[in-house]
Design a protein that fits this description.
By secondary structure, this protein is mainly alpha-helical. Helix content is about 65%, strand content about 5%. It has a single domain, classed as Cytochrome c/b562 (Four Helix Bundle (Hemerythrin (Met), subunit A), Up-down Bundle).
Amino acid sequence: MKACQTPLRGVLVAALAALAAATAGCSRQDTAEAPQQAPAAAAPAAVPAERPELTIKDIMDSMVDPSGDFLFESVQDISDDTGVHRKEPRTDAEWAEVRRHIAVLQDAPRLMVMEGRRSARPEDRSTNPAVENQPEEVQHLMDTEHDVFVARAKGLQDAAVVAMKAADAKDVAALETALVGIDHACESCHLHFWYPNDRRAQQAAIEEGVTN
């Protein structure tokens, strides 16, 4: 019986040895071919919470006034030597430009009411202090009547939303009406915070139905 078991034992040992060698070879090959994982990306640094650099006057000068001027001039009657001509947006490109400026008026109020936003820089002095408030006077009003300022800013935003609907419909008459709403929203805020002592502006506002 022992003579019969020896060859079988030898065959089993050889088979196991071959299997072990093959397994080790595959393991080494898998290890060599396995891609290395890239290091985890660092988390983006948080934006520091600081007082906004731009003032409300900066936003008005660079965003609101230019866009408002463009819109008020986009629909008008122009008189020259050849007669009266109607100017209004007609092409897709012209309506797209109108929409772009309305979008500025929709977004600007969000920037103006941001916490820490100042009304103007101290050096931005009024040249007509008899009717216009100085920066510190405007700031005092905005600080003590912040809810009023937020409401007036939202008034501009709401008026711009109406104008955007008119632009989307390419309705010139509706746009012209909406522009009156934008003008009243702007004047309402200016009368309360910027030039509350301007009696002529106050009287004109009453005649036009502008809320102070």
